[in-house]
Amino acid sequence: MTTSPSLSIRPYRPTDLLSLYDICLRTGASGEDGTHLYRDPLLLGHYYAAPYATLYPDTTFVVADDTRAVGYVLGVPDTAVFAARCEELWFPVLRGLYPLPDPADTSRDARMIRAIHRGVGIPDQPWLTQYPAHLHIDLLPGAQGGGYGRKLMQTLLAAMEARGVVGIHLGVGLTNTSAQGFYERLGFQVLERQPAALVYGLRLGEA
C-alpha cells in the first residue's frame, strides 16, 4: 500500500460508507462543496457513491487518515452489469423511500430523485464494448495536491487489469480543464464530446 506520514491508500471497508457519502456531497458541485445545494445530504451518495462501494467493494479504494476516508475511487468492471445489479439490489428500496417529485419541482433534490428512478444510464455508443468499465474519483481538499489522486487511479486501474477488464471510461465537465489534464496525463483519450462533458477512455492490458 502507498503511505505518507498522514494519509494512506487502502481498500474500502464497510465502515467507510458514511465517509463516502460525506465526500460525495462535499465535492458535489463540480469538485466544490455541494452541502448548501441539497436539502437531503444523502441523495448524491445514494446515486454516485454508495452503490459502487456496496456492490463492488473489491474495486473501491480510499485515501484515509487515522480516523476516516478523505477521498475515494469507485470503479465497476462492466457498466451494463452494474446497472442491472442496481436495478435488482439497490434502487428498489430507494424508490420506495423517495417517490417521484412533482414535475414542477426543479430543485437539485428533485433531479437526483428522478435519477434514482431512471437508474444507471448505459451509454448507447459503439465505444462501450472496448471501454465497459467506468469510475468516479473524488478527494476532499486536504487530500488534494499530494499525488493521491494519481495513486488512487493507479491502484484502481491495476485492480481492473488484474480482473481482465479491457477498458474503462469516465465523464468530465467541459469547464473542468484541470481534471481533463489530469486524465490526459494518465493516458486517457477523448471518446466522445457531449454538450456539457467529455467522455474519456483508457485501454487496459495493452502495455
Describe the overall structure.
This protein is of the alpha+beta class. It is 36% helix and 21% strand. The protein has helices spanning 17-26, 43-48, 50-55, 79-89, 91-97, 108-118, 148-162, 177-185, and strands at residues 8-11, 60-64, 69-76, 133-139, 167-173, 189-193, 197-203. The chain has a seven-stranded mixed β-sheet, sandwiched between helices. Strand 6 (189-193) and strand 7 form a beta hairpin. The model has no long low-confidence stretch (mean pLDDT 95).
Primary descriptors:
207 residues, alpha+beta, seven-stranded mixed sheet
Q: How would you concisely characterize the structure shown here?
A:
This protein is of the alpha+beta class and 207 residues long.
Largest sheet: 7 strands, mixed
Spatial strand order of the main sheet = 1-2-3-4-5-7-6
Put simply, the count of helices is: 8
Q: What is the typical, i.e. mean, pLDDT?
A: 95
Give the N-terminus to C-terminus distance in angstroms. Answer: 23 Å
| C-alpha geometry | globular
Low-confidence stretches: none
The portion of residues assigned to helices is 25-40%
Helices and strands, with pairings:
Elements: E1 8-11, H1 17-26, H2 43-48, H3 50-55, E2 60-64, E3 69-76, H4 79-89, H5 91-97, H6 108-118, E4 133-139, H7 148-162, E5 167-173, H8 177-185, E6 189-193, E7 197-203
Parallel strand pairs: 4-5
Antiparallel strand pairs: 1-2, 2-3, 3-4, 5-7, 6-7
